[in-house]
Amino acid sequence: MSEILSFDLPGFSPVVKISLNRFVLEELKSSWKKDLDWPTFQRSLLKFTAFDNWAETLKKDLELQNDNKHPFHEHPFSLRAIQIQTVNWWGKGDEPLGFLMMKTIIKNDKDHELPGIVFLRGGSVAVLMILNSEERKEEKFVVMTMQPRVPAGNLSFWEIPAGMLDDEAKKVILKARKEIEEETGLTIPYDEFKDMTKMALESATTNDNSQPAMYPSPGGSDEYIHLLVWEKEMDEKNIMDLREKLTGLRAQGELITLKLVRYEDLWREGARDSKTVASWALYEGLKREGKL
């Protein structure tokens, strides 16, 4: 039988054991990091921003059950254990963890268990770029990007500009500006971005401990996306010059093509992409309330 390695998750009471099969650790060593040992893995996991955010958010939410008005107050759930199933790194050097799959055991005293398979990947940012024609005020165009998205089985996936947040780009708007510059060549002043998710949640009646962002698949992943908007009037000739522009981010192995879509067609052209549909809905709602 394979040996099970474990350690205690800091900050939780009762004690929560994090475990990993030694066979998996050996596989990680051969695939990713030859010098990986159990203490190094523990440190890498606890420094993984996505894991830290997830654990802190869950801890706060579990504490809400202490309120006698909470629906789980009589039989509160608690985190019992975490089983690490697999891990990917960004690279084979000193790079941080990239993705993690784990199974959590969350039960109450009735032995009812919550679904607990979690794919941790952390946050990202997406920007709805709207270009308004100076000559024809009713004409609006949106920048979309096409790039390979292997998880979707698609080498030509159309979406609005987006990118993951990482430890070097914790500021959402700075990350958004970087993505826009890389994907379109446009340099955008810091103060021209508006965080639509944050603006919408300010007046929401359902407040919780989650990130002020959109969760595209909370049934399986922690991923959250800050949805920003940038709107600008431009000469129509300059707008048209952006068409068919190709930008290669060779260091990341991505080949990105741009296209402009009329705003009135965005809901149709971006229907496969949750970022696009959610951004369109937020923009429409915020416009309707006079917040944009």
Keywords:
single chain, 292 residues, alpha+beta, Nucleoside Triphosphate Pyrophosphohydrolase, 2 domains, 8-stranded mixed β-sheet, 5-stranded mixed β-sheet, 8 helices, 13 strands, 27% helix, NUDIX_hydrolase_dom, ADP-glucose pyrophosphohydrolase activity
Write up this protein.
- Its cofactor is Mg(2+).
- With 292 residues, this protein is of the alpha+beta class.
- The protein folds into 2 domains: 4-120, no CATH class; 123-288, Nucleoside Triphosphate Pyrophosphohydrolase.
- It has 8 helices and 13 strands.
- The protein has helices at 22-31, 38-47, 49-63, 172-184, 196-201, 236-241, 266-269, 274-288; strands spanning 4-8, 17-21, 78-89, 97-107, 117-120, 123-133, 140-149, 154-159, 162-164, 194-195, 224-234, 246-249, 254-262.
- The strands form 2 sheets. Strands 6, 7, 8, 9, 10, 11, 12 and 13 form an 8-stranded mixed β-sheet that branches. A 5-stranded mixed β-sheet has the order 1-2-3-4-5.
- A hairpin with an 8-residue loop joins β1 (4-8) and β2 (17-21).
- It is globular.
